[in-house]
Design goal:
The complex is a heterodimer of chains A (about 650) and B (about 575). Chain A is α/β, with parallel strands linked by helices and about 650 residues long. Chain A has six domains: about 30 residues, no CATH class; about 120 residues, Glutaredoxin (3-Layer(aba) Sandwich), CATH 3.40.30.10; about 210 residues, Rossmann fold (3-Layer(aba) Sandwich); about 90 residues, Ubiquitin-like (UB roll); about 100 residues, Up-down Bundle (de novo design (two linked rop proteins)); about 55 residues, Alpha-Beta Plaits (2-Layer Sandwich). Chain A contains 27 helices and 18 strands. The termini of chain A are far apart. Chain B is about 35% helix and about 15% strand. Chain B has three domains: about 80 residues, Ubiquitin-like (UB roll), CATH 3.10.20.740; about 120 residues, Alpha-Beta Plaits; about 350 residues, Rossmann fold. The relative contact order of chain B is 0.12. A five-stranded mixed beta sheet of chain B has the order 2-1-5-3-4, sandwiched between helices. Chain B has about 575 residues and is α/β, with parallel strands linked by helices. Chain B contains 19 helices and 19 strands. The chains are: A alpha/beta (about 650), B alpha/beta (about 575).
Chain lengths: ~650, ~575
């Protein structure tokens, strides 16, 4: 361990002198596992993998090796991005390409391993292989680069995820890690770094899309004896998990990105504000922090540059609103996580009233690669105003779920249908919700727009953090709006009136529309259509007057579904019908006295005792008690229950 | 002023100039443009919670909060465009949509900011319907009632409790539409660190916070022929009720107050400033005793009951620094049921003693066990200035038709030193005047101590008394007391005597004063007290003839055994959650 450290430290200290040394080169190649001397088994053990059973798979692998008395190294890697194929297990035998198997639950382990050790590939589970010079390839197994899910992607941020050992700083260094940072602190002034990032065209990946370099300059130009950098890892959008995957799969990339950002703005202290619900990410982040300290990459006078930098991990208690910059700052300060009005902006007066830059995980994780590839290279990717790549989290009714990183400007159709494999179970596509609860839905007619910050806003959605929730024909859009509204009104901090009261009222209106009318007045379609008008009016005021981004974007799911799926609202209101069959509480149930035999089965089944009647006498449903669950209709053998 | 006006902007299509750092709201106020606010209070930083003060920022097309947004060069603002007006209206409608809507029964009917806003913004139709707030009253406090159902969560009370008082008894809990303001662990006020100062009531825009009302008991006593009802009023009362009865702020209504109290049926009327003088005699003597006999120094005043509870909770280890003298109200209460009862030949059980106070913490103080003897409270009920105005209405009294009357004798005469107790710094000024006499045997040449007057949070000065340089301080608003407490704790303080008034400005701005108060009126009240001081002849407590008489006839001398029994007490550490 010590000699390896010295080799790597030499590389970090004087890369020009030593990088061509043959001993170092072969050592780095070994670290990169271009060739291995013993079998290595990789288990995709991110949170998603563990959720799919990777823990059991890992256990089964260990049992198998013990039983067969075989030696092999086991490495727990992060998520490679194809969550629907979890658990993923890779095997690299000496002299052979690393091969990846999908959907490897514990029971499959013995067969797959027995086969591979006899150089036989279980074709039903083989996913792809990673070609490496000098290694033999597996016949009939596509290369990683040819796999339909990975082929169209351009991975900068996710480059190492699922491939490298996340808790090995040596492996990160061997793939070029920390060299971007060190070259900057040796050769560039902080302002030059801000300039470079501004020139690269990188924009905030947390949702707002503010030019990162420009934001840094506000903090750079504010004089203060202390400045702070905060990494916002409070990933809270339902259906977004890219930050978690980056931290679990490649924590050093984030640390290097933070070090670069801190150098640019002149911050010596930084916080990672991370959800406590991400225990694995926190664990790996802490290990990475310790390793970076050991190598002298964090701390005082880093590599004799005179630069100081330290990072603290701060766990958030799981409030969605704490992703908002000023609420997040309050939370770190120990206050209740509530936003405050801006100005002053955090870049001028933020954490402990000091200039503070808050960047999202993905933004920061982009930095090492921007420097390594060159600013121009990064700026050449993407569209005119949105450069580089974007990571999207695919979920919902799509064939392949997981993380996708594509250049800006890729069409949604390509992401959903080429990479994501289209809609699951041959259903029809209805819409995709982009940007989580703050975003909007995009319909078939807009699937061919090129993804960038501006074009999404034009169609009433937003980039957000990049969650893509796919919905098919069985999804009721009013119900979707209700889901997001419910989420937002619960997660609102409760400080400003439009957000706190307004979102609650909007939810109440959506509840009314999706439930059968409870009194005579509400039977009137006019009354019910009034509610929809009210939704639009409230939405406008909430958007315009709320204190923070959470409130300002809170009405988006409703306004967006109203814009594209107004007919579904109208159907709920006028016909009291939900064609997707989701809003079952809209239905009114009545017993046909001609058909009812008085068998009492429905009365016994009714969960709210809403059905009365004596034996052999036609029954009756008390409407006020009925919750429209439909249990009576399901059990009636005489088709005596009419549904309206 | 004009030469620093260096920012040019446009408000409602008119060019205006403003100072750098001013907010849009401040500039508009100066220009006479009225922008509604709900959460804003001047003493603290803007929280931007209510969004009522939004204005249109033409340059960006956004609505921004004028309370928090500083003016910028070239800014164009529209304060009352249709877009702004409609937004404000919808915000009020949202607040009303789940409000209990029981204005007719509400303590703040006709005096409610939400009601006024709703009327001013033209809300005349229920456009937004919501599920009503169903939350229970918190009746557990000694002085305060909280009605969370009427709370609009503007957060003013939280700010006042934190930033003005430094108590933090209340804060927001829960999120979203479940958010509410509560004490720790969402229990009752009785198990909180609340010091009953009532600052929260003073800033509350609705009926969510109000004092515990003592009308019923008092009216019953007034109606009972067997009860002899004695009333005392605090030094500040006569200058703080003017606005409520249609007179210019600060007018001294001393004579009318006496007359109206008798008209309502109070049998005997005493001026609390008399026992303020008595307090000076006792507290001043205690200070000199500590100075000469080597007692705990510095000594803190103990006449503010909110401050006393604060100390019991937050600085119990310093309680030996607190003067043992009771507050003027409690001294009066004790003297009424002993000295005066004896003089009049009354059974103390037949006396019903009422205090009219600028303060709701006095309600708490009156029921403290330290303030009872033989199971009998020295003061039976406390009315705030607000409640007094209400009682005048209940009894149908037109105060302007009355002829001024004077107070009753034995405990009615006061010096102006007792009167200036009502202003922050006044207790200290009065005490120094008498301490000088007690130590040197001579009157101070100039009784006015300018350094103790005014609204600064902490006022410090040194007064030469004989061969002692007396270092004194007056704290005005409890948030300022923290630095002094830290100083005393660390043992580094060179102070001898410290006056603490919980409310900014002192009792003239107490938590029981009328809610229509503003800063200008408080200044007028203070000026009025100092005018009284400047224009009368008896200006020191020790020269009050009735004070001299009470010592001659009954108490003997300050700190005598009788004084000790009746006029002094001691306080103990209080668990914050009990």
């Amino acid at each position: 361990m010590e000699t390896t450290q010295f080799l790597l430290l030499d590389l970090l200290k004087k890369p020009e002198e030593v990088s061509q040394k043959a001993s170092l080169q072969s050592y780095l190649a070994a670290l990169r596992r271009e060739n291995v001397t013993e079998p290595v088994i990789f288990i995709g053990a991110g949170t998603c993998g563990l959720g799919a059973g990777a823990g059991k798979t890992l256990h089964a692998v260990k049992e198998f090796l013990a039983e067969k008395n075989l030696d092999a190294r086991i490495i727990e890697v992060g998520c490679i991005g194809l969550c629907s194929s979890e658990p993923v297990m890779d095997i690299q035998l000496p002299g052979y390409n690393r091969i990846s198997f999908e959907k490897v639950d514990a029971a499959k382990v013995p067969d797959i391993l027995t086969g591979i050790f006899q150089l036989e590939v279980d074709k039903t589970h083989a996913m792809c292989q990673f070609p490496s010079i000098g290694n033999q390839s597996w016949e009939g197994v596509p290369s990683y680069m040819e796999h339909p899910f990975f082929k169209p992607q351009s991975r900068l941020v996710l480059k190492n995820c699922g491939i490298v050992d996340p808790v090995s700083i040596e492996e990160y260094i061997a793939t070029g890690g920390y060299q971007s940072y060190l070259s900057l602190i040796r050769n560039k002034q902080p302002l030059e770094v801000c300039d470079m990032i501004e020139k690269s065209g990188l924009r905030g990946r947390g949702g707002g899309g503010f030019p990162t370099g420009k934001k840094w300059k506000f903090a750079f130009h504010t004089e203060a004896e202390q400045k702070y950098l905060i990494c916002n890892a409070d990933e809270g959008d339902p259906g977004a998990f890219m930050d978690r995957a980056v931290i679990e799969g490649d924590p050093h990339r984030l640390l290097e990105g933070m070090a670069i950002a801190a150098y640019g703005i002149g911050a010596t202290k930084a916080y990672v504000y991370i959800r406590a619900e991400y225990p694995l990410a926190i664990e790996r982040l802490n290990i990475a922090l310790e390793q970076a300290k050991q190598y002298g990459l964090l701390g005082e006078n880093i590599f004799d540059s005179g630069v100081n930098f330290s990072i603290k991990v701060k766990k958030g208690a799981g409030a969605f609103v704490c992703g908002e910059e000023t609420a997040l700052i309050h939370s770190i300060e120990g206050e209740r996580g509530m936003p405050r009005p801006r100005p002053p902006f955090p870049a001028v007066s933020g954490l402990f009233h000091k200039p503070t830059i808050i960047n999202n995980v993905e933004t920061l994780a982009n930095l090492p690669e921007i420097i390594a590839l060159g600013v121009e290279h990064f700026a050449s990717m993407g569209t005119d105003n949105s450069k580089g790549t974007k990571v999207f989290a695919l979920s919902g009714k799509i064939a392949l779920t997981g993380l996708v990183e594509v250049p800006m400007g890729t069409t949604l159709r390509e992401v959903l249908f080429t990479i994501g494999g289209g809609i699951a179970n041959d259903k029809k596509f209805k819409a995709v919700q982009i940007g989580g609860p703050s975003g909007g839905c995009i319909t078939e007619e807009n699937l061919d727009i090129q993804i960038d910050y501006e074009s999404l806003i034009k169609v009433g959605a937003m980039m957000g953090s990049g969650g893509l929730v796919v919905m098919d024909e069985d999804t009721c859009m009013v119900d979707v709006a209700k889901f997001f509204m419910d989420f937002i009104q619960r997660e609102s901090c409760g400080k400003c009136i439009p957000c706190r009261e307004g979102t609650r009222r909007m939810l109440e209106i959506l509840h009314t529309i999706t439930h059968k009318p409870t009194d005579e007045a509400k039977y009137e379609p006019l009354e019910r259509i009034k509610s929809v008008m009210q939704l639009e009016k409230l939405g406008k005021v909430i958007r315009e007057t709320s204190l923070c981004g959470l409130g300002q974007t809170a009405p988006n799911p409703v306004l967006s579904t109203l814009r594209w799926f107004r007919h579904e609202y109208e159907e709920h209101i006028f016909d009291k019908n939900c064609s997707a069959g989701v809003c079952t509480e809209l239905r009114t149930f009545k017993i046909d006295v001609e058909k009812c035999t008085g068998c009492m089965v429905c009365a016994r089944k009714c969960p709210t005792e809403a059905i009365i009647g004596a034996k052999k006498v036609p029954h009756f449903i008390i409407e006020e008690k009925c919750i429209s669950c439909g249990a009576c209709a399901d059990v009636c053998k005489f088709d005596a229950i009419d549904i309206f | 002023m004009t030469e620093t006006m260096n920012i040019n902007l446009e408000i409602n299509n008119k060019q205006v100039t403003a100072n750098k750092g001013e907010t849009i709201l401040e500039v508009c106020k100066r220009l006479g443009i009225n922008i509604p606010t709900l959460c804003h209070i001047k003493e603290t930083f803007p929280t931007g919670a209510c969004r009522m003060c939004v204005v249109e920022h033409v340059n960006s097309g956004k609505l921004i909060t004028s309370c928090s947004y500083p003016v910028e060069e070239g800014m164009k603002i529209m304060t009352h465009s249709n877009r702004v007006a409609e937004s404000r209206k919808v915000i009020v409608e949202l607040l009303l949509s789940n409000h209990p809507d029981d204005c007719l029964y509400c303590v703040r009917n006709m005096n409610c900011e939400l009601q006024t806003l709703s009327a001013d913004l033209g809300v005349r139709e229920r456009r937004v319907m919501g599920v009503k707030n169903l939350k229970n009253l918190d009746h557990t406090g000694a002085s305060l009632v909280r009605d969370p159902a009427k709370c609009i969560l503007c957060g003013r009370c939280v700010d006042a409790c934190d930033r003005i008082m430094g108590v933090n008894a209340i804060d927001f809990i829960n999120r979203g539409s479940n958010a509410e303001i509560a004490v720790a662990f969402n229990k009752g006020l009785n198990t909180s660190s609340c010091i009953n100062c009532g600052r929260c009531i003073m800033v509350c825009p609705t009926g969510a916070l109000y004092e515990k009302n003592h009308y019923a008991q008092i009216m019953e006593a007034l109606d009972n022929p067997k009860k002899h009802v004695v009333v005392q009023y605090a030094p500040s009362i006569s200058v703080t009720m003017a606005e409520e009865i249609g007179l210019p702020a600060g007018t001294d209504v001393y004579g009318l107050l006496n007359a109206s109290l008798r008209k309502m049926g109070f049998n005997t009327v005493f001026d609390g400033a008399f026992t303020a003088d008595l307090t000076i005699m006792e507290e001043g003597s205690e200070l000199i005793h500590r100075l000469t006999e080597g007692g705990q120094l510095p000594m803190f005043t103990s006449c503010c009951p909110a401050w006393v509870k604060y100390m019991e909770e937050f600085a119990p280890e310093l309680l030996s620094h607190l003067s043992s003298a009771k507050s003027p109200m409690q001294m009066m209460g004790a003297m009424i049921k002993t000295y005066w009862a004896e003089k009049k030949g009354l059974d103390p059980h037949d006396i019903y003693s009422v205090g009219i106070m600028p303060c709701i913490a006095k309600k708490f103080e009156a029921q403290r066990s330290e303030m009872t003897r033989h199971g009998m409270s020295d003061v039976d009920a406390v009315l705030t200035t607000r409640e007094l105005v209400g009682l005048l209405k209940i009894y149908g009294i037109d105060i302007h038709s009355l002829e001024p009357e004077s107070v009753d004798s034995l405990m009615g005469q006061r010096s102006t030193a007792g009167k200036i107790f009502g202003a922050a710094g006044g207790v200290m000024e009065a005490a120094v005047r008498s301490a000088h006499k007690l130590v040197t045997g001579e009157e101070m040449s100039n009784l006015r101590i300018e350094a103790l007057r005014g609204f600064a949070p902490v006022k410090r000065t040194t007064v030469r008394i004989g061969d002692i340089d007396l270092n004194i301080a007056a704290v005005n608003g409890l948030a300022g007391v923290k630095e002094i407490i830290e100083e005393v704790r660390s043992g580094k303080s060179d102070l001898h005597f410290i006056e603490v008034m919980a409310c900014p400005g002192g009792c003239i701005n107490g938590g029981g004063q009328p809610l229509t108060v503003n800063e200008e009126n408080i200044r007028k009240r203070m000026a009025s007290l100092y005018t009284i001081d400047a224009t009368e002849t008896i200006r020191t407590s020790h020269n009050n003839p009735e004070i001299q008489k009470i010592y001659d006839e009954y108490l003997g001398e300050p700190l005598s055994e009788k004084s000790h029994h009746l006029l002094h007490t001691h306080y103990e550490k209080r668990d914050v959650l009990i």
